[in-house]
């Protein structure tokens, strides 16, 4: 495992992790009273490891078993079991950890104060803070992937369109015109979209240059951070733009193996209402 950011930050202490097949980072919106975070790794054997800030027990995942996906939010970690149930640890005040009743879940995403789950039938479930309508996803259908941000939620449908709800300053109105999209990622106040041709789209706050991705090509995965954006190319190189105040964009030397465009997730048509 490799990580970019402050060398002395506990959430970047992942160099000794082994057998990891997926990672998640507790994204935190940029503000004077934030900045501490945690990192989570899913091992190939279904166990989970975590490092970083643990004030609310968000790193207490050592006992988890049979996990197939993980997500990390502010002070919170989510895990999807192979049977479609979901486990959570961390901050409980906002209700974002109340996922025990969820069933038939394929994947999850953790925002700062809310959690969203994608069911096998293409519908969504959400819990937590709904101050800006970020949990208003009940009517969406045909969803293939979802991403929860600070005060917003974005999802891509199997028809290649994008649904979004929440704080309008995060670009939720602008993404409805995007087409042929295969993946989305919601940051603190912006949204990234990856199209089937390897191009990248962005909407929302661009105050740190985090939306300057129009020139990116041959991209196979995207990730939106607090105020920066990352793109993984098919050749294993990594692109970054936006705020780099603690070295979070220092990825130009990275070369990742085993990349390449995966199967098209748009297997059948659907849409949001």
Textual characterization of the structure:
Mean pLDDT is 91; it is low at 262-271. 51% of the residues are buried. 0% of the residues lie in helices and 38% in strands. It folds into two domains: 1-129, Methylamine Dehydrogenase, Chain H (7 Propeller), CATH 2.130.10.30; 148-273, Methylamine Dehydrogenase, Chain H, CATH 2.130.10. The N and C termini lie far apart (40 Å). By secondary structure, it is mainly beta. The chain has a three-stranded antiparallel β-sheet, with no helix packed on it. Strand 8 (114-119) and strand 9 form a beta hairpin. It has no helices and 18 strands.
Structure at a glance:
The strands form six sheets. The protein has a three-stranded antiparallel beta sheet, with no helix packed on it. A three-stranded antiparallel beta sheet has the order 4-5-6, with no helix packed on it. Strands 7-8-9 form a three-stranded antiparallel beta sheet, with no helix packed on it.
């Amino acid at each position: 495992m490799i990580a970019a950011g402050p060398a002395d930050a506990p959430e970047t202490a992942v160099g000794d992790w082994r057998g990891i097949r997926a990672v998640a980072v507790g994204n935190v919106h940029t503000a004077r009273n934030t900045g501490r975070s945690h990192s989570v790794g899913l091992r190939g054997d279904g166990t989970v490891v975590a490092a970083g800030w643990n004030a609310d027990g968000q790193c207490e995942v050592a006992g988890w078993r049979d996990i197939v996906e993980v997500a990390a939010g502010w002070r919170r970690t989510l895990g999807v079991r192979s049977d479609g149930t979901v486990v959570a640890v961390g901050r409980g005040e906002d209700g974002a950890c109340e996922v025990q009743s969820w069933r038939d879940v394929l994947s999850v995403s953790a925002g700062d104060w809310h959690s969203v789950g994608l069911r096998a039938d293409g519908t969504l479930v959400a819990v937590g803070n709904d101050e800006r309508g970020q949990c208003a996803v009940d009517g969406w259908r045909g969803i293939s992937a979802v991403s929860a941000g600070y005060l917003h939620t974005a999802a891509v449908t199997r028809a290649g369109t994008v649904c979004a709800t929440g704080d309008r300053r995060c670009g939720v109105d602008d993404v409805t015109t995007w087409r042929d999209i295969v993946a989305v990622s919601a940051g603190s106040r912006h949204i990234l979209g990856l199209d089937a041709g390897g191009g990248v789209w962005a909407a929302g706050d661009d105050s740190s240059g985090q939306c300057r991705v129009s020139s990116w090509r041959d991209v196979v995965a995207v990730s939106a951070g607090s105020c920066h954006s990352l793109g993984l190319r098919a050749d294993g190189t990594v692109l970054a733009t936006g705020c780099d105040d603690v070295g979070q964009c220092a990825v130009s030397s990275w070369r990742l193996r085993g990349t390449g465009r995966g199967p098209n997730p748009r297997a059948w048509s659907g849409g949001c209402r």
